[in-house]
Amino acid sequence: MPDAVRPPQPSELDQLPDRDPQETAEWRESLDAVTAHAGEERAAYLLRRTVEHAERSGLPVSGPLETEYVNTIPTSAEPDFPGDEAMESRITAWNRWNAAAMVTRGSRDGLGGHIATYASVAWLYETGFQHFFRGKEGADGGSGDQLYLQGHASPGIYARAFLDGRLTEAHLDRFRREAAPGPVEGLPSYPHPRRLPWLWEFPTVSMGLGPLSAIYQARFNRYLHNRGIKDTSGSHVWAFLGDGEMDEPESTAALALAGREQLDNLTFVINCNLQRLDGPVRANFKIVQEMESQFRAAGWNVIKSLWGSAWDELFALDTTGALVRRLREVPDAQFQTYATRDAGYIREHFFGASPALAELGRLVTDDKIVELFQTSRAGHEPRKVYAAYRAAVQHKGAPTVILAQTVKGWTLGPGFESRNANHQMKKLTGKEFRAMRDLLELPIPDSKLDDEIVPYVHPGPDSPEVRYLQERRAALGGPAPARKVHPVGLPTPAEKPFEALNKGSGSQEIATTMAFVRLVKDLMRDKETGKRWVPIVPDEARTFGMESLFPSAGIYSPLGQTYDPVDRDQLLYYKEAKDGQILNEGITEAGSLADFTAAATSYATHGEPMIPFYIFYSMFGFQRTADQFWALADQLGRGFVIGATAGRTTMTGEGLQHADGHSHLLASTNPAAVSYDPAFAYEVGAIVKEGLRRMYGPDADQQEDLFYYLTVYNETKVQPPMPEGDGVEEGILKGLYRFREADAAGLGLAEDAPRIQLLASGTAIHWILDAQKILAEQWGVAADVWSAPSWTELRREAMDCDAAALRGEQRVPYVTRALSGAPGPVLAVSDWMRAVPDQISPWVEQDWSSLGTDGFGLSDTRDEARRHFGVDAQSIVVAALAQLARRGDVKPDAVRRAAEAYGLA
């Protein structure tokens, strides 16, 4: 509408200088004239062309966030296909068949499996395996490409490994049969490196974690390269995702990071079959268009690969733009319906939307219409897929997302294709297998399909298909996916940093958080291993006293430091560098843990062992990102996880959601997490030293696939020296040792004084030390004080002893042996809920009781919070007297008198 009719609206452009207002007015008038005489679509097309030309000319303009619902790469611009398309079609057909057969055979035993996902995504994988995915036997030092494969598509990956000779029929029949005895190892349902460590690299079936991890893996590859650890310039990260999966918040949480850091070593391939697990992804909308806008806004290069070659004729016939208009307005759920209906329905409901479309529809046959809407998708055509992949790897300056449209369940027959229920459909009937055989043109006679059990098929190890497949993989650097570990043992660090903690802090009060940071700072100076430390922190480095690392280690930034920091004149200024060592991630625990995972598995991914430590606000570790910790365990990650500002009562004033009393309980459920709650600096040193030996020791064959979880405190205390005695370090590592006997405390107790054993972890050790003194001086009770750095490790060792007993091997648990003969009852105290220390109660022979911080956290001083939860020294004294009174060791009224005296009654 002309300006004379529609008054001009205020614009931010009004604030910019206009050197030639008359020229500006002429451009606006030209646009109005085109709109008036040629229509809105023509005007919009001209604008798009102008912006596109400007972008390609290097002018600083922003293109549209959403483009038409057509392929980004026109057919005329597609490169020549470099492979033998007929051969690759046969290879893909064999894989499709065996994937379906494997799941169907497994369904006899109720094991299930997923068929429809791989059926839709097969060509997206096969084109990559034949032409793009680099293996670990290439010239890049063993890194290859990193492949994040859709978990539900795993049967297809197993089928390809079968064709390649890496798996046998016996393996395929062990799909989802990992525990039952058999002639070969079982195949896990999804990509699980811990279960099948020679094949899988990255666990992806916990949807949303794959895309997040892939971004940080690509970023970590650049980190290794920029720091001079390894040349990773030849590695490309490929993440295969479902369009429904992109609804998970983790899926899109780091898109801006990838765009901001220009990670052109990363490609997302999103299988847009328009279906999630139980129905359409965007029933009334268009998921492809939505994702295009989202990725473009985050700075990604977007390639839409939607329509197969059968659509070329129809697009050529569309001289009015009616087809493009209609494709853009039809919602996804309707496209799903089109893929299952006959030509008459499509003519009525699609082409009947306008006279121009109806005329277009009359130009094509019914068979052509069925082909267009039921089978012709770009994701099912290797030439379309190859064009998209080549464009992705050649694009520089930004990560790429390929939005590839497919039909879920494609080639499985009308009972599967585009059906809402196909995620839950686990097998094909004999009739469906025959139809599939005919469609794929496989040489399988009817006689082979007469049995109840559908056969696996293989063209033979010397067949042209297998030779072609193996030759292509050899040219690309060997088999894929593949996980290979080249054992590298790191030298044992010098003793000096640990000796400093063993000496204690003298009269200085320091927190165990600071003790850990000082230790790592010293270890990072080690000439042999110092460069391998990877400090990771989600934006609170100063909270944890890590600012001293800023100027010495530097904060990693691929751009270096492009500004003059505000604190440049200070000693501990904020220093960013391209080769910086610290990963300061901002306020994102999920991103930080994804970084940690990439670093923690670098020993396998790149053959370069790195030593990450991820330090975080304790409450926001296992509670917020427990799923990622399980994926870390699955991926066999190694490193140190530090829950700082730990415990429910040390966080003064922070309140309910910041007061952590349960992380150790959550961590105890993760079999790969070696959990400790150290009380003193020397305990921290002993635990870190042992962790380095177990995870990174000089004898690479003895290295273990686990990670250490330590909780440290921000409460400053005088750190004592390590007690003398041969059993102290062993007790620290096993989880329990006697720190101070009542008699050794010099409290002047009678020989026949009532006796009790007080156990504590973390900061609670100071409460029971105070209680020990009060019990002796005011109540004549002798209390031995024990430090329990790990309730969880004590429990695990005891459970191992129980399991051994069932095999006829008699072993006494360490906790039982350590407390054996200790007189009196046992009272355990911690800054965690009671269930944490209660883990060991079945193996304690003495009368057992515990105190903890069950319930919600609150805001108050430490003393008041501990009084509220009943874990301060006076509350411990009353609880100890109550235990002794039940045994008759003290008079019953002692409990009442103590409670009244301490204001607890």
UniProtKB/TrEMBL annotation:
The catalytic activity, as recorded, is: N(6)-[(R)-lipoyl]-L-lysyl-[protein] + pyruvate + H(+) = N(6)-[(R)-S(8)-acetyldihydrolipoyl]-L-lysyl-[protein] + CO2
**Record keywords: DNA damage included?**
no
Segments carrying the region annotation (Disordered) are 1-27
Q: Which UniProt keywords apply?
A: Oxidoreductase, Pyruvate, Thiamine pyrophosphate
Record-linked InterPro entries: PDC_E1_N (IPR035807), PDH/Transketolase (IPR051157), PDH_E1 (IPR004660), PDH_E1_M (IPR041621), THDP-binding (IPR029061), Transketo_C/PFOR_II (IPR009014), Transketolase-like_C_2 (IPR055152), Transketolase_N (IPR005474)
Q: What is its EC number?
A: 1.2.4.1
Q: Where is the Transketolase N-terminal domain?
A: 151-305
Which NCBIfam families does the UniProt record give?
Answer: aceE (TIGR00759)
Descriptive protein name: Pyruvate dehydrogenase E1 component
Species of origin: Streptomyces albiaxialis
